Amino acid sequence: MRADEQLPWKKLERVLMTRPAIEAQYFVAHSRARQLQDHLRELEIQIAQGRELLDMTALPSWPPLPEPIRPPTLHDAIRLVLEARQNQWTRTRVIADEIARRRLYRRRDGLAASVKDVSARISDYPGLFMREGTLVRLRLAPQGSAQLRDFRPGAIPRRLNLP
Predict the structure, then answer these.
(1) Whose CA, among 2, 26, 65, 144, lies 20 to 30 Å from 104?
(2) pTM for this one?
(3) What Rg value do the Cα atoms of the chain yield, rounded?
(4) Residues whose CB is less than 8 angstroms from the CB of residue 87 and which lie 6 or more positions away in sequence, other chains included
(5) What does the pLDDT average to over 55-64?
(6) Is 131 helix (H, G, I), strand (E, B) or coil?
(7) What pLDDT does 148 receive?
(8) Which carries the bigger pLDDT value, residue 56 or residue 40?
(9) 3-class DSSP state for residue 21?
(10) Please, what is the end-to-end C-alpha distance for the chain in angstroms?
């Protein structure tokens, strides 16, 4: 055989000799890519779970906010939350968490209103709020009334400044 005929054969022989090494590296890379995809999937699940926890957790009530922007009263803040929820029956815990999250009301000491504060205020205004256990909703305002009255028993009749 002539030398020029053996040249393509030598190239083919070199390729065939390295093919197992190439295949081994291919399978190692493929396995590593699969591991990284599984790890990425786990991280995406952790990120989604973390986001859900952050969304469920109310803002910390400490340290107190310097000067909160809020409605003048807690029952105004409760009303705003219930109106935002289309006046659906809502648990007092959810109302308190939403007031804290949206920074609608702070007590004089700068802390967010607790569930007990919200529950007590709702109990003080039976004409403004309907209650069934821990579930609360607004009583509907009388037709043609632009503002809600102070419905506490024994309260001096006055108008609340509600938008």
Answers:
(1) 144
(2) 0.47
(3) 34
(4) 137, 138
(5) 63
(6) strand
(7) 47
(8) 40
(9) helix
(10) 101
Each residue's pLDDT tens digit, 108-141: 888 889 999 999 999 999 989 999 988 999 987 5
The per-residue DSSP string of 23-44 comes to HHHHHHHHHHHHHHHHHHHHHH
Q: Tell me the three state secondary structure of residue 123.
A: helix
Q: Please choose, from the candidates 101, 95, 130, the residue with its C-alpha nearest in 3D space to the C-alpha of residue 116.
A: 95
SS3 content of the chain, % helix, strand, coil (to 5): 55, 10, 40
Contacts of 121 (CB under 8 A, 6+ apart): 74, 75, 78, 113
| Distance from C-alpha of 137 to C-alpha of 45, rounded to nearest angstrom | 36
Question: Which tokens belong to 95?
Answer: 């109302």
Give the tens place of pLDDT for each residue, 47-59.
888 877 777 766 5
At residue 97, what is the residue type? D
Asked if the model's pLDDT at residue 96 lies above 80, the reply is: yes
Q: What is the DSSP letter of 53?
A: H
DSSP lists the bridge partners of residue 106 as 112
Q: Parallel, antiparallel, or unpaired for β 90-91 and 129-132?
A: unpaired
Q: Give me the pLDDT at residue 81, please.
A: 93
